[in-house]
Amino acid sequence: MRARHLRKTYGGRVAVDGLDLDIRRGEIFGILGPNGAGKSTTVEILEGHRRRDGGEVEVLGEDPGHASRRWKSRIGIVWQNEAVTGELSVAETVRHYARYFPNPREPEEIIHLVGLDEKASTRVTALSGGQRRRVDVAVGVIGRPELLFLDEPTTGFDPAARRQFWELIRSLARGGTTIVLTSHYLEEVEALADRLAVVVRGKVVAEGDPATLGGRAGARATVRWRAPDGPRECYTDTPTRVIRELATAFDGEVPDLAVKRPTLEDVYLSLIEQQEKTA
Ligand SMILES: Nc1ncnc2c1ncn2[C@@H]1O[C@H](COP(=O)(O)OP(=O)(O)OP(=O)(O)O)[C@@H](O)[C@H]1O
Protein backbone atom coordinates (compact mmCIF):
# COMPACT_ATOMS: atom_id res chain seq x y z
CA MET A 1 0.00 0.00 0.00
CA ARG A 2 1.34 3.36 -0.92
CA ALA A 3 0.29 6.99 -0.58
CA ARG A 4 2.10 9.92 -2.13
CA HIS A 5 1.47 13.60 -1.39
CA LEU A 6 -1.93 12.78 0.04
CA ARG A 7 -4.05 15.86 0.71
CA LYS A 8 -7.44 16.49 2.24
CA THR A 9 -9.06 19.72 3.36
CA TYR A 10 -12.35 20.22 5.14
CA GLY A 11 -13.91 23.57 4.25
CA GLY A 12 -10.50 25.08 3.55
CA ARG A 13 -8.87 23.63 6.68
CA VAL A 14 -6.04 21.26 5.90
CA ALA A 15 -6.41 17.87 7.62
CA VAL A 16 -3.91 15.83 5.55
CA ASP A 17 -1.03 17.81 4.13
CA GLY A 18 1.13 15.96 1.62
CA LEU A 19 1.37 12.70 3.51
CA ASP A 20 3.55 9.82 2.21
CA LEU A 21 3.14 6.27 3.46
CA ASP A 22 4.36 2.81 2.46
CA ILE A 23 2.89 -0.26 4.10
CA ARG A 24 4.17 -3.69 3.13
CA ARG A 25 2.09 -6.80 2.71
CA GLY A 26 1.93 -8.96 5.82
CA GLU A 27 3.15 -6.36 8.27
CA ILE A 28 1.43 -4.79 11.25
CA PHE A 29 1.76 -1.06 10.73
CA GLY A 30 0.98 1.41 13.52
CA ILE A 31 -0.18 4.99 13.00
CA LEU A 32 0.34 7.32 15.94
CA GLY A 33 -0.36 11.00 16.37
CA PRO A 34 -2.15 13.54 18.55
CA ASN A 35 -5.90 14.16 18.36
CA GLY A 36 -6.82 15.89 15.11
CA ALA A 37 -3.50 14.99 13.40
CA GLY A 38 -5.28 13.49 10.39
CA LYS A 39 -4.93 9.78 11.15
CA SER A 40 -8.58 8.81 10.75
CA THR A 41 -8.93 10.95 7.63
CA THR A 42 -5.89 9.22 6.11
CA VAL A 43 -7.14 5.77 7.03
CA GLU A 44 -10.63 6.53 5.67
CA ILE A 45 -9.07 7.56 2.34
CA LEU A 46 -7.05 4.31 2.25
CA GLU A 47 -10.25 2.36 3.00
CA GLY A 48 -12.08 4.07 0.14
CA HIS A 49 -14.51 5.75 2.50
CA ARG A 50 -13.39 9.32 1.97
CA ARG A 51 -12.44 11.25 -1.15
CA ARG A 52 -9.03 12.84 -1.28
CA ASP A 53 -8.32 16.28 -2.67
CA GLY A 54 -4.90 15.40 -4.00
CA GLY A 55 -2.12 12.86 -4.20
CA GLU A 56 -1.89 9.25 -5.27
CA VAL A 57 -3.00 6.17 -3.41
CA GLU A 58 -2.72 2.49 -4.21
CA VAL A 59 -4.10 -0.16 -1.86
CA LEU A 60 -4.02 -3.89 -2.80
CA GLY A 61 -3.23 -2.83 -6.34
CA GLU A 62 -6.19 -0.46 -6.79
CA ASP A 63 -7.05 3.18 -6.24
CA PRO A 64 -9.45 3.12 -3.27
CA GLY A 65 -11.24 6.11 -4.80
CA HIS A 66 -12.45 3.90 -7.68
CA ALA A 67 -12.37 0.51 -6.08
CA SER A 68 -14.36 -2.51 -7.19
CA ARG A 69 -16.73 -4.58 -5.05
CA ARG A 70 -14.23 -7.39 -5.18
CA TRP A 71 -11.57 -5.06 -3.74
CA LYS A 72 -13.90 -4.02 -0.93
CA SER A 73 -14.45 -7.64 0.04
CA ARG A 74 -10.69 -8.04 0.54
CA ILE A 75 -10.66 -5.35 3.21
CA GLY A 76 -11.80 -5.46 6.83
CA ILE A 77 -12.51 -2.41 8.93
CA VAL A 78 -12.94 -1.85 12.64
CA TRP A 79 -14.18 1.73 12.88
CA GLN A 80 -13.14 4.15 15.57
CA ASN A 81 -16.62 4.26 17.04
CA GLU A 82 -18.69 1.21 17.81
CA ALA A 83 -20.22 0.21 14.53
CA VAL A 84 -22.43 -2.66 15.55
CA THR A 85 -25.52 -2.11 17.63
CA GLY A 86 -29.03 -3.43 17.49
CA GLU A 87 -31.41 -6.06 18.67
CA LEU A 88 -29.66 -9.06 17.13
CA SER A 89 -27.62 -11.44 19.26
CA VAL A 90 -23.85 -11.67 18.91
CA ALA A 91 -24.09 -14.86 16.83
CA GLU A 92 -26.87 -13.45 14.61
CA THR A 93 -24.89 -10.26 14.07
CA VAL A 94 -21.71 -12.08 13.06
CA ARG A 95 -23.69 -14.44 10.77
CA HIS A 96 -25.44 -11.45 9.22
CA TYR A 97 -22.15 -9.76 8.30
CA ALA A 98 -20.66 -13.03 7.05
CA ARG A 99 -23.24 -13.03 4.23
CA TYR A 100 -21.65 -9.95 2.66
CA PHE A 101 -18.42 -11.79 1.88
CA PRO A 102 -17.59 -14.42 -0.72
CA ASN A 103 -15.42 -16.56 1.56
CA PRO A 104 -16.20 -15.72 5.20
CA ARG A 105 -14.76 -17.39 8.27
CA GLU A 106 -16.96 -19.59 10.40
CA PRO A 107 -18.99 -17.27 12.67
CA GLU A 108 -18.54 -19.64 15.64
CA GLU A 109 -14.77 -19.67 15.16
CA ILE A 110 -14.63 -15.87 15.17
CA ILE A 111 -16.90 -15.55 18.20
CA HIS A 112 -14.54 -17.88 20.00
CA LEU A 113 -11.46 -15.95 18.81
CA VAL A 114 -12.79 -12.68 20.25
CA GLY A 115 -13.69 -14.41 23.52
CA LEU A 116 -17.47 -14.08 23.30
CA ASP A 117 -18.50 -17.76 23.44
CA GLU A 118 -20.55 -17.20 26.56
CA LYS A 119 -22.28 -14.17 25.06
CA ALA A 120 -23.10 -15.69 21.67
CA SER A 121 -26.84 -15.61 22.25
CA THR A 122 -26.87 -12.27 24.12
CA ARG A 123 -28.26 -9.22 22.34
CA VAL A 124 -25.50 -6.77 21.34
CA THR A 125 -27.31 -3.95 23.15
CA ALA A 126 -27.03 -5.93 26.40
CA LEU A 127 -23.23 -6.19 26.22
CA SER A 128 -20.70 -4.01 28.02
CA GLY A 129 -18.76 -1.40 26.00
CA GLY A 130 -15.65 -3.59 25.79
CA GLN A 131 -17.71 -6.62 24.76
CA ARG A 132 -19.43 -4.61 22.01
CA ARG A 133 -15.99 -3.58 20.78
CA ARG A 134 -15.13 -7.27 20.47
CA VAL A 135 -18.19 -7.71 18.27
CA ASP A 136 -16.84 -4.89 16.08
CA VAL A 137 -13.57 -6.78 15.81
CA ALA A 138 -15.41 -10.03 14.98
CA VAL A 139 -17.34 -8.27 12.20
CA GLY A 140 -14.12 -6.65 10.92
CA VAL A 141 -12.39 -10.01 10.42
CA ILE A 142 -15.34 -12.23 9.43
CA GLY A 143 -14.73 -11.70 5.70
CA ARG A 144 -11.18 -13.12 5.92
CA PRO A 145 -9.66 -9.76 4.93
CA GLU A 146 -6.23 -9.55 3.33
CA LEU A 147 -5.94 -6.08 4.81
CA LEU A 148 -7.46 -5.09 8.12
CA PHE A 149 -7.83 -1.52 9.39
CA LEU A 150 -8.17 -1.14 13.13
CA ASP A 151 -8.98 2.35 14.39
CA GLU A 152 -8.45 2.44 18.16
CA PRO A 153 -9.67 -1.14 18.45
CA THR A 154 -9.18 -1.77 22.17
CA THR A 155 -10.80 1.33 23.64
CA GLY A 156 -12.73 0.14 26.67
CA PHE A 157 -11.02 -3.25 26.87
CA ASP A 158 -9.86 -4.43 30.27
CA PRO A 159 -6.16 -5.41 30.47
CA ALA A 160 -6.84 -9.14 30.08
CA ALA A 161 -9.11 -8.56 27.08
CA ARG A 162 -6.46 -6.33 25.52
CA ARG A 163 -3.80 -9.05 25.84
CA GLN A 164 -6.22 -11.55 24.34
CA PHE A 165 -6.93 -9.15 21.48
CA TRP A 166 -3.18 -8.73 20.83
CA GLU A 167 -2.89 -12.48 20.47
CA LEU A 168 -5.76 -12.46 17.98
CA ILE A 169 -4.06 -9.73 15.94
CA ARG A 170 -0.75 -11.58 16.00
CA SER A 171 -2.42 -14.77 14.85
CA LEU A 172 -4.12 -12.92 11.98
CA ALA A 173 -0.75 -11.42 11.01
CA ARG A 174 0.90 -14.85 11.13
CA GLY A 175 -1.81 -16.02 8.77
CA GLY A 176 -0.74 -13.33 6.28
CA THR A 177 -3.21 -10.49 7.01
CA THR A 178 -1.76 -7.00 6.65
CA ILE A 179 -2.87 -4.86 9.56
CA VAL A 180 -3.05 -1.09 9.86
CA LEU A 181 -3.49 -0.10 13.48
CA THR A 182 -4.32 3.36 14.80
CA SER A 183 -4.07 3.61 18.55
CA HIS A 184 -3.37 6.04 21.35
CA TYR A 185 -2.07 3.18 23.49
CA LEU A 186 1.66 3.35 22.95
CA GLU A 187 2.27 0.01 24.62
CA GLU A 188 -0.24 -1.55 22.22
CA VAL A 189 1.60 -0.21 19.19
CA GLU A 190 4.90 -1.29 20.70
CA ALA A 191 3.59 -4.78 21.39
CA LEU A 192 2.10 -5.27 17.94
CA ALA A 193 3.61 -3.08 15.24
CA ASP A 194 6.47 -4.15 12.98
CA ARG A 195 6.76 -0.54 11.84
CA LEU A 196 4.96 2.68 12.63
CA ALA A 197 4.52 6.25 11.48
CA VAL A 198 3.94 9.32 13.62
CA VAL A 199 1.53 11.80 12.01
CA VAL A 200 1.47 15.43 13.12
CA ARG A 201 -0.61 18.11 11.40
CA GLY A 202 -1.33 15.90 8.42
CA LYS A 203 2.25 14.80 7.73
CA VAL A 204 4.43 11.83 8.67
CA VAL A 205 7.13 13.26 10.95
CA ALA A 206 8.83 9.98 11.90
CA GLU A 207 8.74 6.42 10.65
CA GLY A 208 10.49 3.25 11.70
CA ASP A 209 10.29 0.22 13.90
CA PRO A 210 9.18 0.74 17.51
CA ALA A 211 12.57 -0.27 18.94
CA THR A 212 14.59 2.31 17.01
CA LEU A 213 12.11 5.13 16.29
CA GLY A 214 13.53 8.60 16.91
CA GLY A 215 17.00 7.25 17.78
CA ARG A 216 15.57 5.24 20.66
CA ALA A 217 18.05 2.36 20.43
CA GLY A 218 21.06 4.66 20.71
CA ALA A 219 19.53 6.84 23.41
CA ARG A 220 21.22 7.12 26.78
CA ALA A 221 20.11 4.95 29.64
CA THR A 222 19.34 6.13 33.15
CA VAL A 223 20.87 4.05 35.94
CA ARG A 224 19.29 4.52 39.38
CA TRP A 225 20.33 3.11 42.74
CA ARG A 226 20.28 3.98 46.41
CA ALA A 227 23.51 5.22 47.92
CA PRO A 228 23.98 5.33 51.74
CA ASP A 229 23.07 9.04 51.68
CA GLY A 230 20.01 8.74 49.40
CA PRO A 231 18.82 7.95 45.84
CA ARG A 232 21.18 8.57 42.92
CA GLU A 233 20.89 8.46 39.15
CA CYS A 234 23.17 8.93 36.18
CA TYR A 235 22.64 9.19 32.41
CA THR A 236 25.05 7.08 30.46
CA ASP A 237 25.90 5.52 27.10
CA THR A 238 27.56 2.63 28.94
CA PRO A 239 25.14 1.37 31.61
CA THR A 240 26.92 -2.01 31.88
CA ARG A 241 30.17 -0.30 32.87
CA VAL A 242 28.35 1.85 35.45
CA ILE A 243 26.71 -1.24 36.94
CA ARG A 244 30.00 -3.10 37.07
CA GLU A 245 31.56 -0.17 38.96
CA LEU A 246 28.58 0.01 41.31
CA ALA A 247 28.75 -3.75 41.96
CA THR A 248 32.43 -3.40 42.87
CA ALA A 249 31.79 -0.35 45.07
CA PHE A 250 28.93 -2.07 46.91
CA ASP A 251 30.73 -5.41 46.90
CA GLY A 252 27.60 -7.29 45.76
CA GLU A 253 23.93 -6.30 45.47
CA VAL A 254 23.36 -2.64 44.54
CA PRO A 255 20.33 -1.34 46.53
CA ASP A 256 17.26 -0.45 44.39
CA LEU A 257 19.21 -0.84 41.14
CA ALA A 258 17.23 0.03 37.98
CA VAL A 259 18.20 0.73 34.37
CA LYS A 260 15.72 2.61 32.21
CA ARG A 261 15.82 3.29 28.49
CA PRO A 262 13.42 5.78 26.93
CA THR A 263 10.08 4.11 26.30
CA LEU A 264 8.25 4.46 23.01
CA GLU A 265 6.03 6.92 24.86
CA ASP A 266 9.06 9.05 25.90
CA VAL A 267 10.30 9.11 22.29
CA TYR A 268 6.84 9.83 20.93
CA LEU A 269 6.18 12.70 23.35
CA SER A 270 9.53 14.32 22.62
CA LEU A 271 8.85 14.06 18.86
CA ILE A 272 5.49 15.79 19.33
CA GLU A 273 7.10 18.46 21.51
CA GLN A 274 9.77 19.16 18.87
CA GLN A 275 7.05 19.47 16.22
CA GLU A 276 5.14 21.92 18.35
CA LYS A 277 8.24 24.06 18.85
CA THR A 278 8.87 24.24 15.12
CA ALA A 279 5.22 25.02 14.29
N1 LIG B 1 -16.04 15.30 8.61
C1 LIG B 1 -15.25 16.33 8.95
N2 LIG B 1 -15.61 17.61 8.69
C2 LIG B 1 -14.81 18.64 9.00
N3 LIG B 1 -13.61 18.52 9.61
C3 LIG B 1 -13.20 17.29 9.91
C4 LIG B 1 -13.98 16.12 9.60
N4 LIG B 1 -13.32 15.02 10.02
C5 LIG B 1 -12.16 15.46 10.57
N5 LIG B 1 -12.09 16.83 10.51
C6 LIG B 1 -10.96 17.66 10.97
O1 LIG B 1 -9.77 17.22 10.34
C7 LIG B 1 -8.68 17.16 11.25
C8 LIG B 1 -8.13 15.75 11.32
O2 LIG B 1 -9.11 14.88 11.90
P1 LIG B 1 -8.91 13.31 12.03
O3 LIG B 1 -10.18 12.76 12.57
O4 LIG B 1 -8.40 12.76 10.77
O5 LIG B 1 -7.77 13.25 13.15
P2 LIG B 1 -7.22 12.03 14.01
O6 LIG B 1 -5.74 12.10 13.92
O7 LIG B 1 -7.86 10.77 13.59
O8 LIG B 1 -7.69 12.42 15.49
P3 LIG B 1 -8.12 11.51 16.78
O9 LIG B 1 -6.85 10.99 17.36
O10 LIG B 1 -8.75 12.52 17.65
O11 LIG B 1 -9.04 10.45 16.29
C9 LIG B 1 -9.23 17.68 12.58
O12 LIG B 1 -8.89 19.04 12.68
C10 LIG B 1 -10.72 17.49 12.47
O13 LIG B 1 -11.40 18.50 13.20
TrEMBL record:
Keyword line: Antibiotic resistance, ATP-binding, Nucleotide-binding, Transport
ABC transporter domain ranges (all copies): 1-226
Protein topology in the membrane: Peripheral membrane protein
Localization, UniProt: Cell membrane
UniProt cross-references to PROSITE patterns, sorted A to Z: ABC_TRANSPORTER_1, ABC_TRANSPORTER_2
Xref: SMART domains: AAA
Listed Pfam families: ABC_tran (PF00005)
Domain of life of the native organism: Bacteria
MF GO annotations: ATP binding
Alphabetical list of InterPro entries matching this protein: AAA+_ATPase, ABC_transporter-like_ATP-bd, ABC_transporter-like_CS, ABC_transporter_ATP-binding, P-loop_NTPase
PANTHER family: ABC TRANSPORTER ATP-BINDING PROTEIN
Protein name per its UniProtKB record: ABC transporter ATP-binding protein
Organism field: Streptomyces similanensis
